[in-house]
Structure formats: structure tokens, C-alpha cells
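Here we describe the complex-level prediction in full. Unlike the single-chain runs in Section 2.1, the four entities below were treated as one system.
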Amino acid sequence: MLEAARQIQAPAPHACGGEHAGEGCIACQVRPLSICGALADEEMAEMSALAHRSCHASKTAIFAQGDRAQNVYNVTGGTIRLSRLLPDGRRQIVGFALPGDFLGLSLEDSHGFAAEAVDAVTLCRFTRTAFSDLVDHKPHLLRRLHSFAMHELSIAQEQMVVLGRRNAEEKVAAFLIGLRDRRARVYSHTSVMIPLPMSRQDIADFLGLTIETVSRTFTRLAKEKSIVIVPDGVRLLNVERLEALAAV
Amino acid sequence: MLEAARQIQAPAPHACGGEHAGEGCIACQVRPLSICGALADEEMAEMSALAHRSCHASKTAIFAQGDRAQNVYNVTGGTIRLSRLLPDGRRQIVGFALPGDFLGLSLEDSHGFAAEAVDAVTLCRFTRTAFSDLVDHKPHLLRRLHSFAMHELSIAQEQMVVLGRRNAEEKVAAFLIGLRDRRARVYSHTSVMIPLPMSRQDIADFLGLTIETVSRTFTRLAKEKSIVIVPDGVRLLNVERLEALAAV
DNA sequence: CGCTACATTGACCTTGCTCAAGATTAGTGG
DNA sequence: CCACTAATCTTGAGCAAGGTCAATGTAGCG
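The structure predicted for the assembly as a whole is:
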């Protein structure tokens, strides 16, 4: 997930499909590197030279749990779900990656979770060796990556509180407020319209609930006029109330 | 938490109390740096020069949630609980730090969680500025820290699966097996005797359960002869069964 | 010995899960 | 553009895992 502290403007929506997914995609007119805000121009140029842009259609896998980790990715557009599967099929979504986030930074040689495109996703891909070489020559960049990783860890710990100590209503409120805040950082402006490209099942698997409980909770929040449910998202009405439910 | 990949021998138990806790403690005859396995001799010497050894008696705070983060710590002995508190008093323990683990590596300026000594704890303390300067001159060390952080993140994600998708019995089994595996890495040998210096309440707050459910689950596992409950710990009897319950 | 903190056990209750039936939406082909 | 199908979402009824409350047991300590 690893959010960039400062974020460029949102990439324009585009519809490049699966036929060239996973490979360099010259048709995608997106800014190549979300991380750019953190780097000097020359570093940007150096990284761009190493980057392969790629697109993934909705619901396609970017990599599977246990796959050999051969690439590092920087998300430039769309939403990715990161999930771990138990042997019996139970699933836990450990996070949603938004533009600016990194995937595959772990130095372990296989991915600990699966990454799947929730909607149309654009990525910058680096081979691990190229990325590693680059990092070796740019301690500044490594510090930045480490800072991302620690922020990521902090988000993971907050999610532990949500999973371990919050009830269904608080979980859903924390999810919506958390998503609003992350989007605000990514797109540099806050909004009460929260697009939800992920399914109810995805939300349930993120919050440790069932799809039915998520659905009922959305309905209840809508009945009490805390939110309005719209196609592919919600609009926050009573932000105070939601923030109180989500309060850290 | 941040476990060291290779670990020196366990520090000898000692009883330095609270009266000089938090400050340099020349009486503590512990190896100064758990991280040493990862470093060259000269680096070791350089780090040791910057380190202040300190001891914390059982149940004393090392730092509080929200405290200004002024130090980096490396645990050399004992067990530390890392916890987040909700405004209404609910508590989630986000991890237990064992010898070799780092605290305060985050670059944010205040601690996201509280750290409290579960039993007698010995630490190596660095001021943040000194540690930061050191890291600036040792990219090798920074890489190592980043690798620790990513491993930590992986543990946090596994804990999300435990909290979100496992039942009480599986949670307790995962806790015991996880602790056994971490201790095996720290002390370089595996054992079916698992010391549990933390209280039932701590375990409950780590697993997102109540103290009663933890107690009942221990009792049930003991009745079915999967474990034996001993003072301040458990002995694993049916490791196969526990590993199956905890299976990833 | 008695106090305190911690752990265990029991009885009962609530939240969220399971199972099942509809409702809505999205996709597809005529 | 509409009809048909499949997928997703919502809603309801009943249930069970784990929580709550309360009593009892046990260990450490002055």
C-alpha cells in the first residue's frame, strides 16, 4: 500500500483492457511515477528509464500469494486488493492499494499476499534487480522507502485495532473514514463522495465480517442518515457521527 | 518487534529493578546489541559507543502512546507489549517485542503505540539523532533495518488474518505456535515449553478476545491433551494438532 | 494469615453468522 | 432496445460463538 506523502494529480480514467495487461503499455497516457513528488528531477528521469508501464483490467491478478517476487510496482491508477487466503478458503484482505502505493518492496523472495485489480489499474513496474541496484546508489531513495514501509506498518497496526476491538458499525465507519482520508492524501482534496470500486464481499473480507453484516450495516447507516448509498459508492452525510464511530 | 534474523545467545536473567530504570544501567551485564549478528565488528563498536543500556522492571512503561519519539531501542532481554488504546479504554496489543526486536524505528515524531515491560526488560537505547546520523553513513545498516521493517509488516498482516478470520481456538493455537517459532529464531533452538510472561488479559487483547474466552480455550486445549498448563507458561503436547489449527 | 491480583468456571445474553429467499444490477445476445 | 441470465446485494429468521456478569478458586506477598 505504502502511500506517497505528496501525490500528483489523479491519472485520467482510461480503458486499456487485458489483451496487453502485464506488459509495457504505450497506449496508457498516465503519469509514469506516483512517487515522483519525493524525488529530484534527475532521479525521476533515472527511474522512469527503468520503469515499464502496465495495465490490468478489472478482476485480473497482478500476482498470486506465494509467487516469486520478481518485480516492484508503483500504483499510478486504480484500486488493488491485497489478500491472504487460508487453506479452507477463508480470505482476509490486508489492504487496498491506491495510486502512490508500492507493491513488492518486501525483500522476501515470494509474495506474502495476492494482488488483484479491483477496477482498471495502471502500474509502473521495475524488475527487482534494477530497482535494487538503483536503491543501492540512492540512499535518499532507500530512506524514503523505509519511511513508506513504517507508515504502512502503522496503518496495519491501526487495522489490527479495527479487527480486534471494534464492532460491525465501527468497522464500517472506520473503513469509510479511512478511505476518505487516504483519498484526500492521494488526490489532494477531501470529499464526502466515497467511490467504492470493491464489492461488499471485499469490504467484508477486509473488516473481518460477512457480506450480510456489511450490507445490513450500510443499510442501517443509511436509515439513520449517516450516509447515502449511491451506485459504486457512498456519500457521507453525518461526518461527525462517522468520525465518532471511527475515532482512534 | 522487528526480529533479528540471527540472534546471539540469550542474555542471562538479572534483577535490576526500577530505581534506575530508563537510564544507563552499568550493573546490567547483558550483551549490548542484539542486532550485532548483522554487523561488521567496526560497525558494532561504533554502535556500542552510541548505545545506552537501560533496564525496565516488570509492568513499567517504556514509552506511552503519543509520546514524542526521541529514542530508538533494541531489545536485549525480556518481553515488551506494544498496545494501542481506544478512547473508551478498549485495548489492542499489536505485538510483543522479544530480544532482537527494534522499537521506535518509525520516522514519525510520536509513537503510535505504548510499550510496557511485561517482565524485566533490558534495552539498548540510542538517541534518534545519533541513530539517524549513523544510518546516514551506513547504507548497509539502513537496508538491514528496511528488511526488518518489511518482515515486521508481514507479521502484522498475518496477525490481521488471525484477528479477522480465525475462531478462538485457532487464535490461541496460532498465538502459541507463533510464539514458539519466534522464540526458536531468537534463541536458536525450538522447544515445546512456551513461557508466557504476559497475563491472560494481555493474550486476550492481542487476539481480540476476552480474558474469559482465552481462559476457557486454554482449559479446553488442556482437557483434549493438546497442551499442559504450567505456572507462567504452557507445554505443547500435541504439536501436530496445534499446527493444524494455526495453519496459514 | 489475610489481602490483593489474577485466573477459572458457570449461567445467561447479544452480536454477528448461517441459511435461504428475493431484489437489483450488469452483462449478453437477439 | 429489450429479454434473459448471472452476479451481486439486500433482507429475514434462527442459531451459535463468544461476550457479560457474577461467583469461586488460586497464587504471590507483606
